[in-house]
Amino acid sequence: MKIAVLPGDGIGTEIVAEAVKVLDALDLKFEMESALVGGAAYDAHGHPLPESTLKLAKEADAILFGAVGDWKYDKLDRPLRPEQAILGLRKNLGLFANFRPAICYEQLVGASSLKPELIAGLDILIIRELTGDIYFGQPRGRREAPDGEFKGAPEAFDTMRYSKPEIERIAHVAFQAARKRNKKVTSVDKANVLETFQFWKDTMIEVHAQYPDVELQHMYVDNAAMQLVKAPKAFDVVVTGNMFGDILSDEASMLTGSIGMLPSASLNAKNQGLYEPSHGSAPDIAGKGIANPLATILSAAMMLRFSLNQEEAAQRIEAAVQKVLAQGLRTGDIWSEGTTKVGTVQMGDAVVKAL
Amino acid sequence: MKIAVLPGDGIGTEIVAEAVKVLDALDLKFEMESALVGGAAYDAHGHPLPESTLKLAKEADAILFGAVGDWKYDKLDRPLRPEQAILGLRKNLGLFANFRPAICYEQLVGASSLKPELIAGLDILIIRELTGDIYFGQPRGRREAPDGEFKGAPEAFDTMRYSKPEIERIAHVAFQAARKRNKKVTSVDKANVLETFQFWKDTMIEVHAQYPDVELQHMYVDNAAMQLVKAPKAFDVVVTGNMFGDILSDEASMLTGSIGMLPSASLNAKNQGLYEPSHGSAPDIAGKGIANPLATILSAAMMLRFSLNQEEAAQRIEAAVQKVLAQGLRTGDIWSEGTTKVGTVQMGDAVVKAL
Ligand SMILES: CC(C)[C@H](C(=O)O)[C@@H](O)C(=O)O
Ligand SMILES: CC(C)[C@H](C(=O)O)[C@@H](O)C(=O)O
Fold it and tell me: Is residue A87 lining ligand 1, measured as CB closer than 6 Å?
């Protein structure tokens, strides 16, 4: 089995190094091969997703990804910017199912913006469709407005779209995930305004007929953004499109106050997957050795579970992370009075020791 | 001067009655005329926005709006559903600038999900473009997928679009509003993915050249959804498109914990405006006499300020609302230990008395 290791930019290299250290310590049989991606790849090869990196990713069983992006690339044309690498990997590998757990660790309740009673014990799973919607819909571009109040004026446009099979496959993923949890799916749409999401809702209802043991609730995206703040624990599995999922999964992560702890997985139909922390490349703290590697280490655990069929090893990592938290070790982002502040490498070492 | 009074559905009639009572008590010279809208209009006339209601709204200087919607209309075809009334009013009257203040009243800090220190003193203004974007963009509908992985499968689609003059006019509104506040505008986009919002960002930068005294910050919508949770007070004026504004303005309202207090205004180029509470029609508590009328009463104050040129009267209402809060009067939604629970009518009476 082969893992493509793509550290990327900013803190990416530092946090991925710790996850690799943890994987190495497990002494399992897999090969790891690294490649440049994002801004780092642009600097070296003139493209954020070079052919060689894409080839490596396609051939691997799983991809361990750090983060991409840095302000210094803001001026590049869009196709050359670091983010295009992650969009390109998603699309080329067909990674349509994005799992974004929002979990509030007992020891970190205090880090949340929310009152402890609202957030303690939070464990929700946002499932975001990742290869469709307005992210990839054609046509898009600039033109003269073809009609309307400002006909003839310069305008820009994009196309939101979902086909039935795309909605069906993500619906199955959500209902099946809910079966292993609390058997409740909230499908988030904007059916009161958008054709795409009326179709989404209709299709969810159809697929739901095959899962009578799972409860299906429908919620408008604006209401979902509110209910996440008001009563996040009322959710179990949330399923939604690419654009709404981008917004809601980030909102949900931030509710926990410890986004530095949250992993993510993006899977295709063959369970090939890309695993990355929910946070970004944080160029402001890159190279300082203070970034929290736990989200990446927990992403490696998800990788073992979903793509490499190593449930036991996944649980060992998760238990080790629990253990270092219980020991009171904290990177700066989750530090609080009475706990011990450690750096990126120390945190990785502690997880290895706790395995 | 003429006010069209459109109470709508659910708690709409109850809360609008209180706002009308407060307006009457001011003894100013304007005419008020009521009409049905939303589900109530559908029941009576077979359409959520009958011609007569639209005519009244167009001829008025301002519209005082309650709320529309009820689950019992969910099965109707989209064009006949209550929400179409509000979309129709926005589009027909060209109400492109939506003002959604998110204010946390001192006495209501405890009602928020957020820790008091994060929310106390919050006073941000979300300005949402309201007549463009994917809400109204054509073409939209269902068809066979013309290309892609599922070519030929049934799909649904919508068009996101913004023309330059549409972005320019909302940019001016935002910069001018910021001048009267803390001189900071955060423009929320998704320029890293969407053509429409790269154009939005470019145009914001262009218009900003005319407002060198105002600071302009750009933020991706997913990050904005996070920063609102993490540090809401870091914002002053937030400006964004119709779809992102729908989500973020609701998220921001809910952060305060007292959405029953938050008014909104939707204006066109002639300062004709529609004024409504930020909350919905709450059919579950309709007819019980317990809904909070303060958001609607404060919407009437905004109406006096923006459309009827009666700043003094607006301030009288706002001061009266502050007074009833200081007196400890609370409807159920904002009630807490030690305060006096009152119903809708009692709350309206108290505001009249406090004028
Ligand atoms: C970098 C960007 C294109 C990306 C997205 O919008 O999907 C990011 O926000 C994410 O959620 O992974
Ligand atoms: C009812 C609905 C169409 C509307 C919208 O999405 O604009 C509502 O959510 C709002 O924000 O006023």
Answer: yes
Please tell me chain A's helix, strand, coil percentages from 3-state DSSP, rounded to the nearest 5: 45, 20, 30
What pLDDT was estimated at residue A206? 98
What residues in chain B have per-residue pLDDT under 70? none
To the nearest 10 degrees (0 to 180), the angle between helices B294-306 and B12-26 is 50
Per-residue pLDDT, averaged over A183-208, amounts to 97
Nearest protein Cα to ligand 2, atom 11: B246
Specify the CATH number for B113-132+161-256; select among 3.30.230.10, 3.30.70.2740, 3.40.109.10, 3.40.50.2300: 3.40.50.2300
- Tell me what pLDDT residue B74 has: 86
What pLDDT was estimated at residue B160? 98
* Ligand nearest to the Cα of A221, by number: 2
Supply the pLDDT for residue B280. Answer: 94
A163 with B150: Cβ contact below 8 A? yes
pLDDT range class, residue A145, cuts 50, 70, 90: very high
Taking an 8 Å cut-off on Cβ atoms, the answer to whether A165 and B156 are in contact is no
Which residues' Cβ are closer than 6 Å to ligand 2?
A: A 192-193, 222; B 83, 86-87, 246
- Give me the CATH topology for the region A113-133+160-256: Rossmann fold (3.40.50)
Domain A1-96+260-355 CATH assignment equals 3.40.718.10 = yes
Q: Identify whether the C-beta of residue B153 lies closer than 8 Å to the C-beta of residue A165.
A: yes
pLDDT in tens, A254-264: 999 999 999 99
- Ligand 2 pocket: which of B6, B37, B87 to mutate (most atoms within 8 A of CB): B87
pLDDT at A207 over 90: yes
Question: Are B233 and B252 within 8 A, CB to CB?
Answer: no
- What local confidence, expressed as pLDDT, does residue A90 receive? 98
What is the Cα–Cα distance from B309 to B19, expressed in whole angstroms?
18
Burial of A226 (0-12, 13-18, 19+ CB in 10 A): buried
Domain segments of chain A: what residues? Answer: 1-96+260-355, 113-133+160-256
Which of 3.30.70.100, 3.40.718.10, 3.90.550.10, 2.40.280.10 is the CATH number of B1-98+264-355?
Answer: 3.40.718.10
